[in-house]
Design goal:
258 residues, TIM Barrel, eight-stranded parallel barrel, 44% helix, binds phosphoenolpyruvate, EC 5.3.1.1
């Protein structure tokens, strides 16, 4: 037993308006309540689009649900003339616990570099939220056999400048790009290989306390039917779930993998 609380985070991406968001959160909560989900054993987090966060907040507060929520991105700026951006203070004010940074879709479609991802992770933590820092290799890198080195380099850049104690509180998500939204899930062994290498790298650069505390998630075509095998691996502490998090029953099943 690692002592790390498993974390299941549902990244809704650009799906669901605020009415649909309320419906999904209520349905998820009802399902988990029915099945007596132990929130101390598995933390449940939803990550809706910005426009849904206020509604999710109201739903979660009103029902006194133990479901937490976060944002899919954050600005590196505090305030000012940055049209379209959302600051850490705005997200914290809405009760966000987590912020996903450096998702592969942001890296690919918005040119986000490790340096930018690192700056966003620092903003999230300084704002009182936990960054979920995403890394992962594309198919070409996987086929070349360089996937571990690629992800370790991304971790080095994306987690720069945090103290050991800070690192111990962060979350990393290993998401091989070839497994995202493709239905092609990595094997539990594939997930373990990279998650273990990332933890070893953190031990090497920041010490054992950081490596023992930091939670490392796997992401890529996770479903209720494949989560159990993935969670059996010692260095996998949870999952970042895309498509399957849009269905309450499916995501509920993932949260109750144990
Ligand atoms: C994701 O984008 O974070 C993800 C893991 O997506 P999916 O579960 O749909 O593969």
């Amino acid at each position: 037993n690692s002592g790390r609380t498993p974390l299941m985070a549902g990244n809704w991406k650009m799906n669901l308006n605020h009415h649909e968001a309320v419906h999904l959160v209520q349905k998820l909560a009802l399902g988990l309540a029915d099945k007596k989900h132990d929130f101390s054993a598995v933390e449940v987090v939803v990550v809706p689009p910005f426009t849904d966060i206020r509604s999710v907040q109201t739903t979660v507060d009103g029902g006194q649900l133990q479901i937490k929520y976060g944002a899919q991105d954050i600005s590196v700026h505090d305030d000012g003339a940055y049209t379209g951006e959302i600051s850490a203070a705005m997200l914290a004010k809405l009760g966000c616990s987590y912020v996903v940074v450096g998702h592969s879709e942001r890296r690919e479609y918005h040119g986000e570099t490790d340096a930018l991802v690192n700056a966003k992770a620092h903003k999230a933590l300084a704002g009182g939220m936990t960054p979920i820092v995403c890394v992962g290799e594309g198919l070409d890198v996987r086929q070349s056999g360089e996937h571990v080195a690629h992800c370790v380099a991304q971790i080095d850049g994306s987690l720069a400048g945090f103290s050991s104690a800070q690192l111990a509180s962060l979350v990393v998500a290993y998401e091989p790009v070839w497994a995202i939204g493709t239905g092609e899930v990595a094997t539990p062994e594939d997930a373990q290989e990279v998650c273990a290498a990332l933890r070893a790298r953190i031990a090497e650069t920041a010490g054992d306390e950081a490596a023992a505390g930091i939670r490392i998630l796997y992401g890529g075509s996770v479903k209720a039917a494949n989560i159990a095998g993935i969670m059996q691996k010692p260095d996998v502490d949870g999952a970042l779930v895309g498509g399957a998090s849009l269905q309450a029953d499916e995501f509920g099943g993932i949260c109750r993998f144990y």
